[in-house]
Amino acid sequence: MNISIIIPLLNEQESLPELTSWIEKVMFENNFSYEVIFIDDGSTDDSWETINQLSSKNPSVKGIRFLRNYGKSQALHAGFAKAQGDVIITMDADLQDSPDEIPGLYNMVVNDNYDLVSGWKKKRYDNAVTKNLPSKLFNAAARRTSGVQLNDFNCGLKAYKNTVIKNIEVSGEMHRYIPVLAKNAGFSKIGEKVVIHQARKYGESKFGMSRFVNGFLDLITIWFLSKFGKRPMHLFGALGTIMFLIGFLSAGYIGVSKLIKLFYLDQETILVTDNPWFYIALTTMIIGTQLFLAGFLGEIILRTKNNEERYKVSTEINL
To answer: What is the pLDDT of residue 164?
Structure first.
């Protein structure tokens, strides 16, 4: 199979027939063998009924339905697990991503041997203040932190080699950083293609300003995981040891200086417990010990963790 198209959705019943028809047209014109996997992430409208109708007319249309809303990352994870195509295309269901871009993305992966190609919505039709400006700041921070030189990390239109999506773990809200996850997994040839961004035709956006706050927090998380995710003791253990030694040596200095003043210099001195620096040294030792234990517990968790099921599938179609 040439292409698997993964489409997460939430309450997009109006756009699904038009999107499916558009995809079918592009696939037929380019003679691609394909599958379209819709992941209904807990829709409360008639999206699932619409997917049922579309799949009855075209066996290449498949569906996964979650029991409730779990988030885009979990939806992509479920779709990636089922995808069979040589090239996997992800796109949004709101018609803002154009299926006409699929052949170009496919050719970059197959002919130019890219591991991953990310869309870049260079010209956007979103609100400049609430979406475009925060998006530029977010992408700049992501480039600086991750080292992946993409202009639009959050674009839903991306193409992957099958081996890429089978070797990365998309969890939490990390769908924005799949290129970073791919790079950390060893897939270094990551490209970008300018794609058309279309104004939303039906409904309204499911994401607000909070996605940028969450995005920055996720960026910090993925940076930490990429650096110390497999060896938390290297960070927490080192910091804990340094802080403990600073506190211990400081407390020792306070005690030794008191003894010298009492027995050698015959000077009056305050009680150790009346010295505020003693409590600062003690606190530093306690924090150092806690950091060391955090690293130790992190190592234990890494060695004993189980891969828990992160979402519940209600129904599947043609899978």
So the answer is: 94
Q: Are 172 and 220 in contact (CB under 8 A)?
A: no
In this predicted structure, the answer to whether residue 107 has a pLDDT above a threshold of 80 is yes
* 0.85 surpassed by pTM: no
Vertex 41: Cα angle to 172 and 161 (nearest 5): 65
HSE-CB for 73 with a 13 A CA cutoff: 16
Dist CA 196 CA 20 (whole Å)? 18
Structure tokens at 42: 């807990």
Confirm if 176 and 122 have CB atoms less than 8 A apart.
no
52-91: per-residue pLDDT in tens?
999 999 999 999 999 999 988 899 999 999 999 999 999 9
In three-state form (DSSP H/G/I as H, E/B as E, the rest C), the secondary structure along the chain is: CCEEEEEEECCCCCCHHHHHHHHHHHHHHCCCCEEEEEEECCCCCCHHHHHHHHHHHCCCEEEEEECCCCCHHHHHHHHHHHCCCCEEEECCCCCCECHHHHHHHHHHHHCCCCCEEEEECCCCCCCHHHHHHHHHHHHHHHHHHHCCCCCCCCCCCEEEEHHHHCCCCCCCCHHHHHHHHHHHCCCCCEEEEECCECCCCCCCCCCCCHHHHHHHHHHHHHHHHHHHCCCHHHHHHHHHHHHHHHHHHHHHHHHHHHHHHHHCCCCCCCCHHHCHHHHHHHHHHHHHHHHHHHHHHHHHHHHHCCCCCCCCEEEEECC
pLDDT of 264 reads 81
Q: Assess whether pLDDT exceeds 70 at residue 303.
A: no
Amino acid at 157: L
Lowest mean per-residue pLDDT among 47-56, 102-111, 189-198, 216-225: 216-225
